[in-house]
Queue: 3 jobs
Job 1
Amino acid sequence: MNMLLRFECKKLLNRKFTVITIFALMLCVMALSFLIISENTNYNADGSRISGMKAIRVNKSSQAISEGKLTKQKLLEAFHQYQKVMNKPSNYEGTTDDLKDEVYVTELKPYDGVLSLLRRNYSPAGRYDYYILSSVSDEMIDQFYEIRHAKIQELVNMDYSYGNYSQTEKEFILNKDSKIKTPFSYDYADGWGDILQRGFFTVFLLIGLAVCVIIAPIFAYEYQTGADAVVLSTRFGRKRIIQAKILAGFLVSSGIFFLATALFMIITFTAYGIQGWNASFQILSFTSFYSLTILQVFLCGLLLNYLIVIAVMSITMLLSSVCNTSFSTVIISALWVFVPLFIPSSKDSKVFNYIINLLPAKALDTYTVFSVYDVYSFGKTVISLPIVILLSSAFLVLIALPLAHRSFSRHQVA
Amino acid sequence: MELILDRLTKQFKNKIAVDRFSYTMKAGVYGLLGANGAGKTTLMRMICTVLSPTDGDILFDGHSINVLNERYCDILGYLPQDFGYYPDFSARDFMLYMASLKGIKNRAAHKRTDELLHLVGLSDVATQKIRSFSGGMKQRLGVAQAVLNGPKILILDEPTAGLDPKERIRFRNLISDLAKDKIVLLSTHIVSDIECIADQIIMMKKGKLILSGTTADLTEQANGLAWNLIVNPNELEQYEARYCISNLHHTSMGVELRIVSEEKPAQNAQPITANIEDLFLFHFSDELGQTSGKTSGGIQ
């Protein structure tokens, strides 16, 4: 089996197209990582713009003031600072409403993260009003967490064109939300935010596509080269070879996944550091109802996306076992991965949206998956989106691989 | 050792490729002859388990191969008509891969690979990629992989197709060397290949077995079918339209024809010793686009 497995891996990896695909994937991951890093911006006290690593360093040090538990006292401190800056006429450029650059950078920017959370909390549900803080009082700040929970209640009770939440769904969401530990743990987490919001989805979508391309010939290549006749007439040609192929596909897909993920993480963590790992996920996604830290969401996202990539691999294997060429396999599996990306959410059908949510192009978006209120009801049981993605991916793997096995073992050379 | 094909039938939609084919093979070399589309490849694919019969059964030593399953594949060697290989593999890697598919242990696989690559004359190019091989080299590699497991049944579908005469002779000798104590079933269009190495010849037409026997038996049957005749060049077209002409040679005396016909084609036609090719043409000339040797009536 070892020798068979080694050769199956070699068959997958030796192809010129595989080498090009892996190289292109790594190049894209690197380019994306550097792009994300380079788009970090901040300003010097003199108002000059800085970006990239320099901006990250400045952002990190300036936000240090808000680190720790986001207590009401800390929220008030940020709010009072805001009021102090905004209420001082000399802080403005001439007669305009624009703050002086140096005032913004030195006095307001360090509180930006916390102030943003305050704006999110006091803006009307589903909106973000930048100027809302001018109408907020100390009493409201004092009620920060209660108001947040009420906002989530409001969100689940709203009327939606595609259908409203059922009572059990509302209870599920609110119950989960009430379990979130307060006060939130706050820290500099721009890096984690960039990784989860901007990098994760693209990196894993690219990995999914690379897996489609690399795994596509796993069975189809036998038909394409005509080697199927020789292979199927051998002792292990209808059983053990399939196990070896599946295992080889799994190893190669996993290798690609971990290689690309590691490259992305090495570059981004080197730039941002791991600071903020223990902060509440709500500082990135304020209305998320999951009681998780940023690191937990990151790890859950990794696990989910790995499983999705394995599901993509399994479907590609199934297609490869029924299609006559690698090309047709790549086209069909890539369509399956990519097309949902361009399908907008339905305004009428909740079921449609819930199905689309489970397709790779949507399910790979960890940040959104842990931010939206899409929950699945099966009778009286309500299951959250990440769990449904996990189960549906596992289900796809468990269905597709035996079908691929069956299809190849029953293949007729005619 | 006995391989029985029992009323083996394969139907593709409306076409019956193999029609109730029954035959018993014991150790020896069997040459399968038939025109294109006669069902040779389909028959061989069924014997090699890569195509399921619509009806009938294949029995090895009294046991259905469906029951024997992996045990049957274990004693089988197959070189398909279009030998599929992995272009990016070296000959050695390909042999080792096939060895692992045939369940040969690692050390034995290496030993056997070296032996066979030497036997088929590919030792020097063992580490080269197969994509750089000539047609003959690929065919030799195909035979080497087919005999890796020391099969009791060796199926070779058109193994000499596309080879130059030198390669063909080399190939025939190789097959003869490997055929000892095996059932070797070999199909080809090239009648002389079969005449040289086959102990038994099987003729297939439109999916059916039409004739079988030793080369001597069949040559005996073919006697009286071959004629030699010298005609004027302006009569040639007439003869071509009416008879199956197996050979044509322009000489100073006219055109010398070798005609395959049940009846004497002309008064001055001389009977000559027939061979398997004549018999083949006699049965398949209609499918080969020639006038049938069974046409009656001579030219005066």
Job 2
Amino acid sequence: MAQATLDIPAKKLWGGGTSPFGASYGKLMMWFFLLSDAFTFSTLLVSLGYARHVHADSWPLVEKVFHHFPFTHAHLPLLYVGLMTFILIVSSVTMVLAVDAGHSNDKKGVLFWLGLTVVGGLVFLGSQAWEWYTFIVGADGVMKTVVIDGEVKEILVQGANLQYNEYGHTLFANFFFFITGFHGFHVFSGVVINAIVLYQTYQGIYEKRGHYEMVEKAGLYWHFVDLVWVFVFTFFYLL
Amino acid sequence: MAQHVADQSYEYSHAHGPRTPEQSRAVRRKIGMVTLLLSVITIVEVLVGIYYSKSHVSAGTWTMIKWFYIVLTLVKAGYIVLVFMHLGDERKNLRNTVLLPMLLIVYLIFIALFEGENIIQYVQDLMK
């Protein structure tokens, strides 16, 4: 299998007629796209770190902000975000199993595991919608001194928007909306891509083609979305 | 006249062809182990986050916890990329092409750490 093709001499490897990377065009381009996307997310997270450092005194303790859990009023810090992380990891695992089923040309297996992956993605998106809702609505609110049209005013700030939030510095809510929003949009497009691949699998397009590499490519994207969330989870919620 | 070249991506795929049941079992066992590891790490992170809140521990302990989180995150990321995304099974060419540019992110963090202080100072001077 793979090991036999590893020891091709460089001259033959780059001499044309064979893929020097041992990967098809589509897969290679997916890797390059993910690389550029990784840079985008790293700039977001680095600028988050910068903002936190500069405004350390007015940056809220994250576990004091995210302690809500659906259907209960108990104070459960970080548990909901932990659950979201777990959901995304599980949907990543079902994707691995879909890719694995594709390797053995098992159409039923691909349909089953890819279907579960789509469901997992939708559950994650739903969880994120609930989290945004809770964040925007807020709790009791706080009195804040703000400047409106050049006048200094004392107003009750409840929940969060892009200008004020009850939790801490304005940038805290801005980074929350931007980073989790940008990631959430990636999840959304991942679900759409997976759903299209699921439909094409159902139609038997890949069966006719003789291989399920499209599942592998969609899988790369989906795992990347999971990978980014691992970093967002650490650098936004835990630290 | 140029002849149409058929799609050969199946041949490029690193793990193709029928597998023995034994190989399939080994692959699934590996996936199961990695899943377990990722879940346990996440649970540990959440528990540490709950019981060792930044407001309850000393600055020194918090620094240690921060590094603890970062190391665990990198372990998780490594397993996702190498096992789930199968980068560990790809040819060295591809592996280096994807992983070496990541050093630029290390450089970005370096810039943020060493130039950030100057920018803060600059903005504070402007505010005066």
Job 3
Amino acid sequence: MSDPQYFAPDTVDEAVRLLSEHPGARPIAGGTDLVVATRGGRKELPEALVALHRLAELRDLGVEDDALRLSALVTQAQIAESEPIIGTWTALSDAARLVGSPATRATATIGGNLMNASPAQELGSPLLVHGAQVELLSTEGARTIGVDELWLGPGRTATSPGELLTKVVVPRPQPGSASAYLRLEYRQAMEIAVVGAAALLTVDGGQISQAAVALTAVAPTCILVEGVDELLADAPADAAPFDAAAELAAAQAQPISDVRASAEYRRAQVMVIVERALRMALRRAPDRVAA
Amino acid sequence: MSTVLGGRYQRPDGLGKVTGAARYAADLSVPGLAHACFLYAERPHARIVKLDTARARSLPGVLAILTHEDVPPVRYGMFVKDRTLFATDVVRFEGEIVAAVAAVTPELARTARSLIEVEYEPLDPILSAEAALEADSPLVHPDWEDYAIRDGVDRRANDGGHFTTVKGDVEQGFAEADVVLREIYRTDMSHAVPIEPHAILAEWRGESVTIHSTTQVPYPARSGVAETLQMPESRVRIVVPPLGGGFGGKCDFHFEAHVAALARAAGRPVRLVFSRREEFVATDKVRHPMVIELETGAKSDGTITARRARLVLDSGAYVGDALFAAEIGLMMVTGAYRIPHVHASAHTVYTNKTPAGSVRAPGGPQVCWAVEQHTDVLAAKLGLDPRELRLRNLVREGDTGPTGQRFDHNGAVECLERATEKAGWGKPLEEDEALGIACGWWFSLPVPSGAYVKLNGDGSGSIITGAQENGSGSVMALALLAAEELGMRPEDFSITYQDTDVGPWDLGSAGSQTTINNGRAVIAAATEVREQLLELASEELEASPSDLELVDGQVQVRGASSRAVSIATLAAKAHGGALLLGRGSGLPPAVPEHDLAGCVGRLGYSAFAAPSFYCHVARVRVDRATGVVRVLEMTAAHDFGRVLNPTGAEGQVEGGVVHGVGIALLEGTAFEDGHQRNPHLLDYKLQTGADAPPINVIFVDTKTPTGFPHDAKAVGEPPVVPPAAAVANAIAAAAGARVRRLPMTPERVWSAINGESA
């Protein structure tokens, strides 16, 4: 057993070069997953650590006309407290506010959260319903993929070993949109998702024009529920078949039984949480009532 | 009129604890310190066929490796001597210690541990207490009949302690009943979970060892070291740094001898610090999983005529101090109710699981949770309001307890009345909300204790005590009692404690006993000093000692405060002659008279001295779709006799309620094939600050003569007993479905709602 190598580069280019030179390396930002899991004996430390804390260029939180751009080191606390995110990408702030404790939120980053690829990560479903993309950088160059392509399973992503997640791009939703994220909570702080759901609705003159639902902690990754848009589009907002959307979600969930819940309970709770998330999104939609 | 008792007193050790200045056992370091770790069985039941430490020993930096071959072959145990320091031939639970390592760094110790070669032959694990009691069950301890026991222990195969209560004629009682209700309740294992894990540092000087330990019970820990390492107690000194909570999990003798033996073999001081996982898996003091069978007969007017009860405690691999939990649990099966005919039994069953024992109010919360739900179900069956049924059956002066002890005037009824009034019993509530009531009783434990009090030349005082502070603040508040006796201020006293070479023997922080027993000792010691002061002052003031009083830091002629001499002056004068020194112990109050005819296996909790009564009312909201329960408010009324320090007593009630709500809703260990599945704080869910409800604390001061100082009763444990029961009854009222398994997790509540409505 040798101690891992540790690097703290000053530029993103240097970070990417270090990652390519040390194939066993892992980037480390807040460390709230990697350090805690290693200290708890659930993970081994990687051969090398490339610390990102000096990379000021990865700290930007940019609210632009076309999209929200969250660089990799943006923290959960920033997402929870940002007024533009609360106003426009509400499911993200809902989710960030639920993560761990104040100390965790102040430290944990969006890049680390996404690359840890936990099916229980809070930001996953909100980013899915908002159609977010991630920018990946390596010595070979940059590429962009959708978050729906990023996760392959618990702890597994579609990135190559030398790639660094640098930015998350969340498109500005259509006018009339609202989103929400909810989770089943056994207690009121320091909780982890047993079942979570994000919903996004676009409502125009009291009629739903667009809808999306994603699920947390009931499949190997966070997943978008297929067929929700087809089911809800054109429905009147005050009589939309949210129960049918919830059934659709439950049918697509792949819950397991573990110490937190049985598969049967999880599947039943998908129905409850999805319907509640849709209702919460609808309550937030500015144009939910017919003119 | 007292100037200090009943006033608000802030404990002097608080600031250091909240600012991080306090140094706990794991913070201690000494030159040459080596680091320990244990190799655990990691399987519930197996025979060791090979144990080879040679490779581990050869690793540079490894200082010592110990197995059962390296310590005396002593079997120990408080009630049943069923255990050895290290596994000998057979391992009986996953956290059993097979070997211990000391090395120059913690990392190296763990590496060496991984090099110890052990081969096991798996044995069928015995994982169900009910199955273990069947006649054809394999035995956890095939040689159980050879183990030495404490007098009074009644054992059977796989049953480390069997008890019965027999009162009246239970058959006759059932014959008199108009209705009979029979139910079964089950509880899961839960844990003490102190925030500070166990830590021990042992250092030898010649043939003597000093052990800094996180124990709640330094003197029993000293006895355990002396017994297992076969050395005189006089060569063992236990010192306890500030303790970061215990909640019973640090009672009894634990790991001090392992670390002491390692330090001797290593020739270096050695420190052991538990991880959180070890705190769950290896700390052999968990709250018993229980099966609680209750059968009750009542007349149609609600009068309870008979109770039959059977408790099966899953006590894990070794008995330890578990028989307290069994006997106390047995005393709790009647609740605080007048029941003329009782037949009850308890079995403390061996299984291949984590050994159970003392956790704050051992045996209490589980049995109260079952009995008080049973009371509500009985009320429904009789068509009576749950409060009314309780009111008709709660004990009054002259009634008798389960073993025939006669009750004095007490606060049982007043607790119910005041708690239900404050909580708004009978008033309308929001949708999906409901109230639930739980009543009960607890004991005050009379045990020996001792203290010294001295006055120093500058007029300050010092208390030297064997009492152990485990976070409750009761040791800190001993200064109140000395100050009261001597007409001084509590802040005039320093307290020296938690060192077995310094203080007199004490049971430790267990059984809610510190204030009522060590308090007796401190008062007795202060009384000696008082008499010495009066003698000195009588010369000074030319008055008879009987005409003098101690008030506001001076001795004065009664009613004439101008004829006075300050205590500081007298103390300075004493330093030119006979010093002002007092010692106190005194006989503990007697346990009430009772009748054990027909009872089996009783060990000292067969009657409750100075019983403490309580009633909690929970207001909860149930989310019927998810089964998630939120406790919105708790009202807790307690008859503690006289409350000596309201700030401290309120803290005990609030802490007990939050702990109890955790037991109610989320705290439970899941087992799979003899392994704990959630030995960490992510999935063993404690209540957080965000979950803690507003708590209304009501003290019912009953002026009951108890034999303890100032008629005080036990405070530390009772508040954790009824919350789970009150929450359970509130859930049932709100959800229309009853959960007969503890903890009442969202999934269990949801299942009950769907099962009963389906």
